[in-house]
Each structure stands twice: as structure tokens, then as C-alpha cells.
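User: Please fill in residues for this 323-position structure.
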């Protein structure tokens, strides 16, 4: 019996485009343990949000899952009907997306939106709903008086925290967050991350967290996945990937963040641009930008290979390990 809450296997996502299907996620596999915090990093357009949408079954046209599976508590989400999925959303898996600030319904008070989610999933009394709603707002440091507020009466940061409160309302086992703190100032970001971390330890939920903020990664995540052009190119314990990145792309990415507390810099270390997702190169997707690429790299797409609990998708790393 495994302790995993989530098993993603060879998950593939395509977007229909005028030039043919673009493979935005190409065969991603990973397991997530109970209560584990997995961070996902990678430059803009590498498929982070698409992967999260696919896991939560929230993709809409022109995006669709073209292969693979997403098992949550033994159930393959990719096979469920929208009605069956609705039973799981908020209660088992909740999602705070990149635009969370604007994800609240502008015509309903915060309290009404929390109550709607409770009523859809529980048979709680109005009293219990009011009590739980006040409780989750307190968790994200919003006064319960704001149950009566409309979203426009809250600051951007408060709206984002209200979405996080909503995500924790029914104590799901998995919370998926896509740059939930990006609209906040640094002080508010830190305080929000501390709240999420305290709650995670108290409630024991697992987190998948997409961020550009390496200090968040290094302080809070157990494991770190690096994505490039729709693939996971490296995955391992955060400290290891952070201090000893193996994949040439991860190495460039980490070099772009020299100081944990410093400002984010441009990805200057790696020349060139990511490949076309409609007509990807035959071999390694990173080969055209890689200083170590040889003939094998340009011809054969590398697999994600495990070296202990650290996985790397790279022929050069494999050659070095073998010699
Ligand atoms: N609706 C769409 N139609 C066609 N292509 C799309 C669509 N949405 C996303 N894509 C493409 O899919 C790829 C992955 O996009 P995605 O938004 O998942 O990247 P991301 O890693 O989340 O980027 P960011 O860091 O900027 O949020 C990109 O190449 C993007 O152009
Ligand atoms: Mg995104």
C-alpha cells in the first residue's frame, strides 16, 4: 500500500493550433506522497500551468489530454465524467490558479461563495458553514467581517488569500497552486507562504506549487521538478537539485538565481529559445541550446533516468555517470 496521494503517468497534453497539434506537455510522470510539497520551475511557456490544468482536469479547448493517466486515491481522473469530477473538486483536490486574484465571483460576497462550496459538498448546517468559513478566513489572516464583503472591496492580496481560504475550506488532500503569490508584494508573499506551511503541517495536505521564486522553492518544497518544453528534465529532493543541478538546463536556471534572497534575474545563462512544440526536434529538446550536445543528443530523445532518488533526462549526464 503506497502512501502516494497522486500518481501521474506519461501525461500528455496537446493544444490544437492552425499549424497542427502543439505538444505542451509531453509524457510527464511523477508520484506525490501524502503531505509532500512539490515545487515546479521552468521558464515561461514550458507547460507548468498546462500540466496543473491537466492534473486537475480543468483543460478546455483547444487543450486536451492526449495520453497518460492521473490517479488520485486509486481513481483515474482522466476517465471521470464532469459530474464525477465535481464531487472531487474542492473536497479532495483544490486549485488556486495563476489568475486567482480574479477567480472569485464578483457578484457574490466572500461568505456566499464559501457557503456555496460547502453546500455543494456537505450537509452542514448554516451555522456550521458560517463557523468553518470564519475559520478558514482566519487561517489566511482575513477578518471574518469580510464574509460580508464583495471581492471588489478586498485588496488584490486579500482576494488571493480568500482563494487560498476557499481551497482549504473542505480540507482537501491535495492543493495545487500556480504562482499564487505572484501579485503580492514581498512581505505579503512571505507571510502567505508561512501560513500555507503552518496549515500544511497541521492539516497534512500535499502541495504542487508552481513558482518563479527560488526562495519559496528552497524554503518550502520537499522535491523540485524542473520543466523544459513540456517535459520534466530533472526531479529530486529540493536541496540536491538546488545545490547540485545535473541537467544543463537546470544548471543554467539555477545560475540565473545566484542569491536566494536576491531579485529574480533574466535567464541570461542559456542562449537561444525553446523549440517549436508543433515540430519539435528529433533528439533531446534542449540539444539546440546545449553546450554539451553531441550526435546522440541530436538524434535520440533521452528518457528520464533515476540516479537514486534524483531523476535526470540527459544523455550527457548518463555518459558522465557511466565513465
Ligand atoms: N490556448 C492555447 N492554445 C495554444 N497554445 C497554448 C494555449 N495555452 C498555452 N499554450 C502553449 O502551451 C505552452 C505551455 O503554456 P503554459 O501556459 O502551460 O506555460 P507556463 O509554463 O505556465 O508559462 P508561464 O510561466 O508564463 O505561466 C506554451 O508554449 C503556450 O504557448
Ligand atoms: Mg503558467
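Assistant: Residues filled in for all 323 positions:
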Amino acid at each position: 500500500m503506497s502512501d502516494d496521494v497522486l500518481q501521474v503517468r506519461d501525461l500528455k497534453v496537446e493544444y490544437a493550433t492552425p499549424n497542427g497539434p502543439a505538444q505542451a506537455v509531453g509524457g510527464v510522470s511523477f508520484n506525490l506522497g501524502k503531505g509532500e510539497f512539490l515545487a515546479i520551475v521552468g521558464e515561461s511557456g514550458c507547460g507548468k500551468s498546462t500540466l496543473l490544468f491537466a492534473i486537475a482536469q480543468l483543460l478546455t479547448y483547444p487543450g486536451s489530454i492526449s495520453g497518460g493517466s492521473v490517479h488520485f486515491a486509486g481513481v483515474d481522473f482522466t476517465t471521470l465524467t464532469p459530474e464525477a469530477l465535481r464531487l472531487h473538486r474542492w473536497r479532495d483536490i483544490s486549485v488556486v490558479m495563476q489568475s486567482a486574484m480574479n477567480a472569485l465571483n464578483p457578484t457574490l460576497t466572500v461568505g456566499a461563495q464559501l457557503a456555496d462550496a460547502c453546500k455543494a459538498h456537505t450537509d452542514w448546517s448554516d451555522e456550521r458553514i458560517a463557523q468553518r468559513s470564519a475559520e478558514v478566513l482566519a487561517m489566511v489572516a482575513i477578518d471574518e467581517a469580510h464574509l460580508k464583503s464583495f471581492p471588489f472591496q478586498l485588496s488584490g492580496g486579500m482576494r488571493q488569500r480568500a482563494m487560498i481560504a476557499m481551497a482549504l475550506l473542505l480540507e482537501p488532500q491535495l492543493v495545487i497552486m500556480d504562482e499564487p503569490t505572484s501579485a503580492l508584494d514581498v512581505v505579503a508573499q512571505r507571510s502567505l507562504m508561512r501560513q500555507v506551511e503552518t496549515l500544511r503541517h497541521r492539516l497534512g495536505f500535499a502541495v504542487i506549487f508552481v513558482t518563479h521564486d527560488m526562495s519559496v522553492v528552497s524554503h518550502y518544497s520537499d522535491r523540485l521538478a524542473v520543466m523544459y518544453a513540456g517535459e520534466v528534465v530533472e526531479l529530486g529532493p529540493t536541496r540536491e537539485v538546488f545545490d547540485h543541478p545535473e541537467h544543463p538546463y537546470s544548471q543554467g536556471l539555477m545560475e540565473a538565481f545566484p542569491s536566494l534572497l536576491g531579485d529574480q534575474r533574466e535567464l541570461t545563462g542559456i542562449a537561444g529559445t525553446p523549440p517549436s512544440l508543433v515540430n519539435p526536434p528529433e533528439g533531446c529538446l534542449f540539444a539546440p541550446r546545449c553546450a554539451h550536445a553531441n550526435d546522440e543528443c541530436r538524434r535520440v530523445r533521452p528518457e528520464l533516468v533515476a540516479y537514486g532518488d534524483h531523476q535526470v533526462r540527459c544523455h550527457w549526464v548518463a555518459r558522465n555517470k557511466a565513465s
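For context: The chain has eleven helices and twelve strands.
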